[in-house]
């Protein structure tokens, strides 16, 4: 019988619920709201403002590239060291915000924040997998990730200063929103390091094979492609060209997820990798533009908090219950996500708080149910593989909705339309994205069902083969 460690578990859960949001909150770029303040503080000309916004957006490309590399490093070394180093980088960059006195320094700090955040996410997942209470720990990790992705943009907008504040340097708040989350996680990680000096209690995570390390590096290629697109498409590329490239990139990402889901090293019984692509595409890329349409800095926070809370509750329910759910629960989750998209299309930006809460609650519940159900039987390798695909999918969704909005607003501007017409064009573009998201959700649901059934048939054939011990291929 294994010895229990309530103190270590409590500290780990504290680290998970602070480190994961601290990493995800690096992603939103609200620099466009503080351009007047930053221009006064840094002495920027009109042409340099675009470079400032571009520099503050370097966190996401850096995070995409760092995540798979950190996943391999955490598997080869100790996940505690990778987590502590990532949090130290993240917090150090945020603490240095006062020294962001130029556009290049601002971009450097944001890139360092992205690297730190990219190290935090896989290392925290591995620490959760090491626990004897694995279902609870990984459930909290997934709940924090899903809830943070849904809530990140409105949360950062809530602390973004106005464009014409009296204190010009106030714009630097966007470089360290909710810094106390990272500080709390760093202290908790230090305490975990002290506790790790004791003899290990649980069996830990099996050592990685060479094949697993190679496959974990596979998402580096699409991550690098997405990072490249995120930077170069800010240089006046046509919206049509951006959409074509984004569609090709998302299709390639889905292909990698399908291939990995059917493998013996990175596969899982219920198609976890495909679900993680869905979580990335349909979380922050849906709630982020919606927060902008609902008022930007004055966005109502409650409906988004409801969506994040429902997602967290659904994940924990799916991972912590005694009886594991099956493929039907995953399909039910995709159905709720699709219904939420349809509701958002029907309501538009004029919905009240209760209607938004219902739609976002359904979105969070469906996403959390699918994620928690597929994560439960997945091993450490498949869990890390899915994470390395989720984050490029977040950027992929933004690369689709962004050009749609730019194209519609550009058409209005060329015809001499005003602010009201531009807002209507943004709303129309967002509805087009939601319709596309409905189609994407259906396609991903079919892909998840296909990978799960195909793997089940193959594992059954292996178990029944002559000379087999009756065990199916390992899932991690």
From TrEMBL:
Going by the UniProt record, its keywords in alphabetical order are: Membrane, Transmembrane, Transmembrane helix
| InterPro entries documented for this protein | MFS_trans_sf
Q: Which residues cross the membrane?
A: 52-73, 80-101, 107-128, 140-158, 178-195, 215-237, 243-260, 272-295, 301-321, 328-350, 356-375, 382-401, 430-450
- Domain of life here? Bacteria
Protein name per its UniProtKB record: MFS transporter
Q: Which organism is it from?
A: Actinoallomurus iriomotensis
